[in-house]
Each structure stands twice: as structure tokens, then as C-alpha cells.
Amino acid sequence: AQSVTQLGSHVSVSEGALVLLRCNYSSSVPPYLFWYVQYPNQGLQLLLKYTSAATLVKGINGFEAEFKKSETSFHLTKPSAHMSDAAEYFCAVTPARNNNDMRFGAGTRLTVKP
Amino acid sequence: NAGVMQNPRHLVRRRGQEARLRCSPMKGHSHVYWYRQLPEEGLKFMVYLQKENIIDESGMPKERFSAEFPKEGPSILRIQQVVRGDSAAYFCASSLQGVPEKLFFGSGTQLSVL
Fold first, then answer.
1. pLDDT, average across residues A56-80
2. pLDDT tens, position by position, B25-46
3. Does residue B22 carry a pLDDT above 90?
4. Angle at B47 between CA B46 and CA B50, to 5 degrees
């Protein structure tokens, strides 16, 4: 079975600082990994995805994530936080491209201080 | 994503009543997914439907829960005889091709059972 663990339910950074949101996965087969963002009172939006191509994946709004098989990690980073990045971020894994059993992490709430 | 419409936004029910949650997918999308998010937990897959068909309901509780996606009209998630443990945020997502990586989410329905 596949699963993801997000380390840290709340992360707080200052505006302009590095953002690092951690996600570790468990999968018996090569995984497809995703990061979603949820802004207040909105649905989830896809930030980026890893589907076995390049290990460094670039997404929207300056975010990127690196797939590290040796560490079973898919951490999300952004060099410089902006106030508008404040949101809830979810890591997700699915074992195959058309598998409906997408497993989500518990989420990490990012706060950006001025 | 504003394209997937869920209503109501908030729903309050007393124990034993029925809850009906509605989801209108994005225009042209014929694949609908329902997820449930319990407090401090990630989203958990419930059911995957195409027009008039249930494709995968492996995440759906065996009793009291049902879902449909008729030829005309929104998808409905129905919970009969609600209990306090049903209190959660219920998210609907739609896709054009039935591929999880191309999911578009609604803003969710927050169900509170008194």
C-alpha cells in the first residue's frame, strides 16, 4: 500500500525566507507524487507532479520539488516566501497513472510572517 | 478550482438525519471523485464515478453512504442516518480523462453533525 507522511503540521517562515515542506512516501512500486495547495475557502489546486521523468520538478508560483528515491522523499521548496503563499499544502501519492487510490498526507499549514 | 461547484458549503444535521452533498463537475468533465477529510487527517478517497456508473467505491463505508452521478445533474453523495463521526469536510474533484493527476477540486462541503 502507498502512503505519505508530511512532517510538521504547521510551518512558519518570514517573508523572503526559504520555504521547505517535507514529505516522505512509502510505496511498493514506483510512485507518482503530487503536491497540492489549498487556499482559504477554496478547493485543492495542483502545484506540481512527479511522474517518473525528471527528478527535479518545477511547479507554479516558483515552487519545486525533488524526488529522492534513496530517501523516499519529495520535499517542496521555494527560495523566497511571499505572503500569498500562506495556505495548506498536501502531498499525495498514487501507484499508477490511472489508479484512483490517491493517498494524501495530513497537510502542512504554511504561515508567512511579514 | 472555481470550476467544480459543491453545495452546500456548510451543512448541519442532527444525528439520524440524512445529508445530501452535491457536486457539479467542470464543464465537459465526466469523471467525479469524492474524498473525505477528517480533522488533522489527509483526504481519503471514497468513490469514483463516471456518468451513471460507479467505477470504484472501495473507500466508501459499506453502510449508510451512497453516491450517484446521473446522466443529467450533479453528482450526489448521500449519507443516511448521520452520526457524529460523519462530521468532516467532503471534497469533490472532477477530471476530463479519469486520470488522477488531472483532478480539479471543489471547495468542499463541511458537514457538522450535532
1. 95
2. 998 888 999 999 887 777 888 9
3. yes
4. 160
B98 at the A interface (CB within 8 A)?
A: yes
Average pLDDT over residues B48-70: 93
Q: What is the C-alpha R_g of chain B?
A: 13
CA distances from A67 to A25, A49, A54, B65, B96 (A): 10, 10, 8, 37, 27
Question: Which neighbouring-strand residues pair with A11?
Answer: A110
Neighboring chain B residues of A44 at a CB cutoff of 8 Å: 43, 91, 93, 103, 105
Distance CA B52, CA B68 (A): 7
CB contact under 8 A, A45 and B43: no
Residues of B in contact with A6 (CB under 8 A): 42
Average pLDDT estimate for A96-110: 80
Residue B73 CB-density burial (10 A; 0-12 exposed, 13-18 middle, 19+ buried):
exposed
* B40 with A51: Cβ contact below 8 A: no
Q: Name the residue with cell 511498493.
A: A28
Q: Give the contacts of A53 (CB within 8 A, at least 6 positions apart).
A: none
Cβ–Cβ below 8 Å for B48 and A104: no
pLDDT in tens, A34-46: 999 988 877 888 9
Contacts of A69 (CB under 8 A, 6+ apart): none
